[in-house]
Specification:
The protein is built from 8 helices and 12 strands. With 332 residues, it is α+β, with helices and mostly antiparallel strands. It folds into 2 domains: 99 residues, Serine Threonine Protein Phosphatase 5, Tetratricopeptide repeat (Alpha Horseshoe); 223 residues, Porin (Beta Barrel), CATH 2.40.160.20. An 8-stranded antiparallel β-barrel has the order 2-4-5-6-7-9-10-11. Strands 1-12 form a two-stranded antiparallel sheet. β9 and β10 form a beta hairpin.
Length: 332
């Protein structure tokens, strides 16, 4: 209690000193400002009062032709509050001009996220013999349905300027689809669920629409992703009421491909340099996932299922957290 009381008393004393320094500045005694404020700069001010003190020191140094020290305290303000900006019609023009010479946006960010996604099965070429005589292509496509799975990952953004960034992610993602044919060979029912696990490395260009100091910051992004298959398995396979072995499918699936990704989202600033965000992405796939040499052989053929050429596109929704890292620097 004594320590807390002492700290509160020290802040009150420094608040009075700050008011006195402001009076001296207004009266043109700028050299008195330095000696008054220095004892409180390290730990005597609250955050708001420290920013006021820094502004007073910056103006005092500018008016005494000491630009180096003025720049030093502009950097200190931006380290204390990266979203601090000169106030229109309040702060002097000299202060605004010098402040505008500094880089104020983050250098980079790191973060993490998690969410859900939905896969879309898209046949490229139908070769399943059991369907060609009894179903139209439209009816055949209806036998396949996407399923919801999960994703989680980490990200890093590198700032090109205050509104444009390059983003690199590492995402562990599950894909899934189901197949159900009630007329297999004309008399039987056949079901299959395939689950896939992928490591995705998207590299994206991101554009943020609002200024850095805004609370809400919508963005859009577009890029390319590298996809590496970790695992593929037919988790459910049945013929009538008979449950068939659930085979691993890695050997009959293409393991690596590139594809486009685009989307958007919005960030919300919870404090200086810290954000939560929601993100929506469309991951379009044009690559056939089936190895051509495995159409009529392998684990699926062994249970009576003939693979079609197909792709799996994906629509993802994530919620995450981002921490920004700043290095204020004079650039003009």
């Amino acid at each position: 209690m004594f320590i807390l009381g002492y700290h509160a008393q020290a802040q009150q004393n420094c608040a009075d000193i700050l008011k006195n320094a402001e009076k001296n500045f207004d009266n043109g005694k700028i050299f008195d400002v330095f000696s008054l404020l220095q004892p409180c700069i390290e730990n005597g001010f609250s955050k708001a009062d420290k920013i006021r003190a820094y502004k007073l020191l910056i103006l005092s140094y500018l008016y005494s032709d000491n630009q180096a020290n003025a720049d030093k305290y502009i950097r200190e303000i931006l380290l204390l509050d990266p979203d601090q900006r000169p106030l229109d019609n309040i702060d002097p023009m000299e202060y605004k001009r010098e402040f505008d010479k500094f880089r104020k946006h983050p250098v980079f960010t790191i973060g993490g996220f998690g969410g859900t996604n939905y896969s879309v099965y898209q046949p490229l070429f139908i070769r399943s013999a059991e369907n060609t005589n009894t179903n139209t292509v439209k009816d055949f496509v209806k036998m396949y349905n996407g399923k919801f799975r999960y994703q989680f990952g980490i990200l890093s953004e590198w700032y090109l300027n205050s509104k444009m960034q390059l983003e690199l992610d590492a995402i562990f993602k599950g894909y899934s689809y189901s197949y159900k044919n009630q007329n297999f060979l004309g008399v039987l029912s056949q079901e299959l669920i395939e689950n896939q696990s992928w490591l995705e490395l998207p590299l994206q260009f991101k554009y943020t629409f609002k200024k850095q100091e805004s609370k809400w910051r919508p963005y859009m992004n577009i890029g390319v992703r590298f996809n590496l298959l970790i695992n593929a398995v037919a988790s459910t396979a049945t013929l009538e009421t008979i449950k068939l072995p659930a085979p691993k499918l890695n050997k009959i699936r293409k393991n690596v491909y590139l594809s486009p990704v685009f989307g958007g989202g919005i960030k919300y600033k919870i404090s200086a340099g810290q954000f939560i965000f929601v993100d929506f992405r469309s991951n379009l796939a044009f690559n056939n996932l089936v190895k051509k040499s495995t159409y009529n052989e392998g684990p699926l053929a062994d249970i009576g299922y003939i693979d079609n050429d197909f792709t799996l596109s994906n629509f993802a929704f994530s919620i995450g957290f981002i921490k920004a890292f700043y290095n204020p620097k004079k650039i003009n």
